[in-house]
Amino acid sequence: MNSFTELHGHAPEGEWAAPGRVNLIGEHTDYNGGFVLPIALPQTCRAQARRRPDGLLRLWSAQGGGPVTELRVADLTPGEVPGWAAYPAAVVWALREAGYEVGGADLRLESDVPSGAGLSSSAALECVVAAAYNDLYGLGLSAPDLALIAQRAENAFVGVPCGIMDQMASMCCREGSALFLDSRDLTSRQVPIDLADAGLALLVIDTRVKHDLADGAYAALRAGCERAAALLGLPALRSLAPSDLPAALPRLPEDLRPLVRHVVTENARVETAVAHLDTGDLTALGPILTAGHASLRDDYRVSCRETDLAVEAALAVGAHGARMTGGGFGGSVIALVAAPEAARIAAEVTAAFHRAALTPPHILTATPAEGARRIVGSTKSRVVNAG
Ligand code: ADP
Ligand code: MG
Fold it and tell me: Which residues are catalytic?
């Protein structure tokens, strides 16, 4: 009933996919020019697409609800497209803003990335549209260039002040690896991570809550970090090493000190985590995750009752480590567990939510999957070059 042909009256030219992500470690560091270490999820947003010669953008999403949304590409204006259609429209707008003379398209979108769970369904949606447009309009943009377009789309058109991690993860992650990304210059390295070989599994525990203060708090935290960097005479907090902290913190107002401490120690945790992955000691990630959670809870203060409960419950029943992932105030928790224990630990975490009279979480296991790619059309391989 809702096939591409039924929605748009002709066949698509191709189909693309872009994944959601979980960040292993490196939270709230990207907008401070720091390090992050995400993996792509097997869950993706898929786009079937066909160019249109008349400048119309016709959008339909299985998750969006409602009929086809029709917009005129030349008229796209930030803040003026309501609802979910703002995300794909934003990407087309951002491409044109960047000087690419792209036209209209028919799009059919369908995603199995949980929405609003801190797993970046929004970046998956943006990146699949960016990848489709890159191919259809022959733009030849690299994966990092498309990630920057998608981030600008979300920042300036949708109005969410996100950092670059989500879009870089969705565009650039490779199957079997984590993406060690330096947000300062977008250089990155694929770090192999074979959980199964190490006898491990990564649980993703979606707490299914998103507290209202999330958006405003994110912007305020970001502004606090920028103020701290300015007071210290630095371009970004990334420039501060852990050994600089004792001298730097007393120079800051008290309310900014814990923010700076989190960012600086979190960057160091990413580097330590990568060193462990490089030597194949995956179990050693556990305590780093748990330390990262304590820092988010106590210093950055973006945790909440549900994410704390998921972390504590997982640790209490044998997880090697656990932390909230994503921006905070709800969303998802990751837990590194022994593979044979995964089902038991998931059940115990669910039981802990029942005991606390909370809505039970959705729990899935994550394996590092492939970034944005064409899945139907001229080639089944990645179509965006790794840049
Ligand atoms: P997250 O990125 O963590 O999932 P966000 O709040 O950033 O959470 O993004 C969720 C929003 O993205 C949804 O409310 C919706 O507007 C949009 N979205 C994501 N995926 C889809 C989809 N497949 N169809 C329509 N809208 C989507
Ligand atoms: Mg998002």
Answer: 166
